[in-house]
Amino acid sequence: MTANLPDKTRLCSLADIPEGGSKGFNYDGRKLFAVKQRGKIYLYQNSCPHLGIPLEWVEDQFLDSSGCMIQCANHGALFVIETGKCVAGPCNGRALIPLNFHIDDGNIVIST
Question: What is the DSSP letter of 47?
C-alpha cells in the first residue's frame, strides 16, 4: 500500500522487496519498478526504451533467470541493474530512466 506524506510518497518498505528481487509500482499515473541487489535499491521508470511498453509480463518480475540483469519480457533486452543501460537487444546502447528517491525510516520514498 502506498501512503502519502507531505511532499513525499512512500512506495514501500525495504522489507517488501526481497534481496535479489524486484517490485513494480503505479505512482502518479506512471509505472515504476525497484530492484534490490546487494542491499542497494535501484528505481526506474517501467518503460522499455525500444517500444515504450512495460518490461514485465508477470507482476513484480523484472529480472532475468539469473537475477543479474533487468530483462524486458517482450523481446528479451537486457539492462545492467546499477545503470539501466541496455547491453543486449533492439535498444542496445539506450537506457532505462532512473528515478530519484531516498530511504526514510526503512521506506523507499519519492519526493512529489
Answer: -
Given CATH 3.40.50.10860, say whether it is the number of domain 3-111: no
Q: Which residues are CB-neighbours of 64 under 8 A, at least 6 positions away?
A: 70, 71, 78
Q: Exposed e or buried b for every residue in 49-81, given b needs 16+ CB within 10 A?
A: bbeeebbbeeebbbbeeeeebbbbbbeebbbeb
Distance CA 76, CA 90 (A): 9
10-35: pLDDT as tens digits? 999 999 999 999 999 999 899 999 99
Q: Which residue has the cell 523484472?
A: 62
Q: What is the residue extent of each domain of the chain? A: 3-111
Verdict on whether the full-model pTM lies above 0.85: yes
Give me 33's grid cell.
519498478
